[in-house]
Amino acid sequence: MAEHRICSVEGCCNRVHGAGLCNTHYKRLKKHGDTETRQRAATGERRIWLEAHVGYEGDDCLPWPYSRYHTGYGQFTISEGVNGTASRVMCELAHGAPPTLSHEAAHSCGNGHEGCVNPRHLRWATQSQNAADKVRHGTDARGEKQWMSKLTEADVRRIRSLNGKKSQAALAREYDVHPTTISDVMTGRRWGWLT
User: Fold this and answer.
1) Helices (H), 76-167
2) Residue of 32, 91, 93 lying closest to 65 (CA atoms)
């Protein structure tokens, strides 16, 4: 009989649903950014909080005190059915409208994933500039940091070392991935940044 894994939250004895958490804690993580229940606040209260902190002059990160997305970024309801991030709203309050609609609120501190909304840490950046910041800060979700990844860097290096020595189908069975994944790893379409 297969043994069921138990939720990783201390004191919880429920079966794992996703990401090492039971269904309840997994839903809280997706909705609020952590497994603890956060007090819900009306959009108006959240906007008032941002406006009160737009002049914040501290050098430390200013954490968003309300609900967060599973990525850790502050959750903000812009209008009925339209959600955004608190950091984007703060960036607009502090620095004006973005130069284009495709510009993103980028963090100089690298702590957007921890809910930072310090206006001094925010600036408008293109998607590629923001992606480069994430690589520089080590906060990009690629490779092992991608929570759904089945492969590790060591696995990828080993798979590449076996190119031509072991069939892709055999490697796919060994690592419990689709053969296309093995092909993509070997050609660099996946994990191409890893040398």
Assistant:
1) 86-95, 127-137, 153-161
2) 32
75-98 pLDDT, tens digit each: 998 766 667 899 999 999 999 999
Angle at 75 (CA atoms; ends 71, 79), nearest 5 degrees: 140
Q: Count how many residues are written for the chain.
A: 195
pLDDT digits (tens, 9 = 90+) for 16-57: 776 777 777 777 777 666 666 544 455 688 999 999 999 999
The span from the CA of 179 to the CA of 195, in Å, is 21
The residues facing 124 across adjacent strands are 105
Cα–Cα distance, 175 to 184 (Å, whole number) = 14
Q: Hey, what domains does the chain have and what are their CATH numbers?
A: 1-29 (no CATH), 43-140 (3.90.75), 146-187 (no CATH)
74 and 118 in contact (C-beta within 8 Å)? no
Extract the tokens encoding 154.
């060591």
